[in-house]
Known about the structure:
Number of domains: 2
CATH architecture of the largest domain: 3-Layer(aba) Sandwich
Oligomer: single chain
Strand order of the largest sheet: 1-7-8-9-2-3-15-14-13
Distance between the termini: 55 Å
Helix content: 25-40%
CATH class of the largest domain: Alpha Beta
Amino acid sequence: MNAVLETVETKPTADQIRWAREQNPKMRDRDLADHIGISEAELVASFVGHGTHRVAPDFDVLFPGLKQLGEVMALTRNESAVHEKIGPFDKFINGKRAALMLGEQIDTRMFPSNWVHGFAVERSDGKDVRRSLQFFDAHGDAVQKIHARPSTDLEAWDRLVTALLLENQSPGLLPEVRQAEPFCRKQPSEGVVSVLRDRWQAMTDPHQFHGMLRDLDLDRLSAFELVGEAWAWPLDRGSVPALLRLAASEAIPIMCFVGNRGCIQIHSGRINMVIDKGPWINVMDPTFHLHLRTDHIHEIWAVRKPADIGHVTSVEAFDREGRQVIQFFGVRGEGNAERSDWRGLAENLPRSDRSLTLGAAE
């Protein structure tokens, strides 16, 4: 690995990236790319002509085609959480700014402008061939990956790949990626607290929350800090593992959201098998896998938002920079009140000592 890096003054070539992969066959793509100073999209692109093809992230072709495949695994992740759902793609609703996939198993919100680079990947694994469709944003970060399963219709898979193929399949060409702007918390403007609290109490649907943040030029975490403990309060940093274990042991159906710039993926339902492994806490159920780095979690908040009936309660975790890592709700049908078992779980999670300080400051 160091031999590669020491022989080039700029980014490594496709040949050098493939050599690095040969030297580190068990390292995950994301980790290997970070190790050699490139994006994951560049690493995947280095294999064009070697089992990988460039494909277009064309939603009008991609998602109707995915519906024909049967069971697949959809993976959406950020720096700290990996969310995997196993099942078929189902009802697709397209839109210029946002698109929806509404299925019993695969449920996503996609933002088309951030689906920039696409690849169809085939890799040999002993006698087997692992197939995936991988999509990346302008910075070379993965937005979503779709992996074939043993029961996937491979003829339909091949038809979809063919329909998505780009004309230029020249090997050795790496995508142009641009450096992402560092995440920065927004400085609240003077007088925003009273407006925030008035707007918050006036909400009638939790989906109005994003528009409120945009109007007030606030980031999510700042809004929680300012709105007051009647609506949001900080939790102990062990609250997310406690939430997962309690939801599993008490059979409380939850919604679990993990997202990045291009995709938010949602699990709705009960969870069963919760496993600790080093800094990771994992859910390993038949159609839902979650892998969460608990050591990346810096703050956790319980949050109430007004809804059509009463309010709904979420539990949201953030990293040290203030970026959302993961979010939980109770499963709630439209027009129904929030489940009392979920509300009781969320409201009784251990509070952070910081909540006492915030309460005193008010």
